[in-house]
Amino acid sequence: RKSSERKIRVCWELADTAFGFRLTITDEDDNRMTLSFPYSKEEARTPQADNLRAQLAKLGNTPFEVGGTLSGEGSDIELNFSRNWFLPASVVADWRRQAVDKLVSVRRINYRRETAVWKSTKHAFPTTSLTYLGNVMNNAARNFYLAHGVSSVAPAYEAQAVPDAALMFCKHCLRFSMGWCPTHQKGRLPYREPYYLVGTDGKRFKLAFDCKNCQMKVYAE
Questions:
Q1: Are strands 8-16 and 20-27 parallel, antiparallel or unpaired?
Q2: How far apart are CA 218 and CA 221, in angstroms?
């Protein structure tokens, strides 16, 4: 299920004009789009405000939501009508869709990506040597470490395989899961080590247990 969802707040204004209606959508970043629609006016027999607001609030799977006023005052859906005009729900839905599409385009045009300016540093790296675990795959990374006091830089495992290298370092320990941890559970091991994980393709991976650091290491056999 969803744990979080990011929506952009918007407010609406629907107003009548001399030739029809005008729909304005404004988002929380002050991006705004106004569309005018020529449309013949017909006065409704019943109040229409609630129905119009309900239609404009239906933003569904768009990145927007009507959720509170942007300024903190007034309504997030303003209806500025000189009379109680009738507008079919299908017409309002189409206007809403057009306005949302236009606002998305406006946001893309106005968006300015923040760029970080690289500034060289001279502080020393905490260690003077890096093994394959440093994951150094290219010259740019290697030169960075050399410039910061690392005298020995080994290439990443993918660039140069290392015999007997640990493939994984796991906080999850199978011995502990089985109740056989000699440190925390004082359980007796029912089987002689080493233990292996066996893949569906028959490959075997040897397990080693670093109790001092409370880690399980996985090695290729």
A1: antiparallel
A2: 9
Q: How far is CA 201 from the centre of its chain?
A: 35
More confident position, 67 or 28:
28
Comparing C-alpha atoms, which of 84, 12, 79, 91 is closest to residue 48?
84
CA–chain centroid gap for 68, Å, is 24
| Helix, strand or coil, per DSSP, at residue 35 | strand
Provide the pLDDT for residue 69.
Answer: 52
Q: Dig out the tokens for 75 from the structure.
A: 């309504």
User: Residue 70 — very low, low, confident or very high, per pLDDT cuts 50/70/90?
Assistant: low
C-beta separation of 70 from 11 below 8 A: yes
**Mean of the per-residue pLDDT values of the chain:** 90
Report the distance separating Cα 189 and Cα 11, nearest Å.
66
Nearest one of 53, 49, 56 to 86, comparing CA atoms = 49
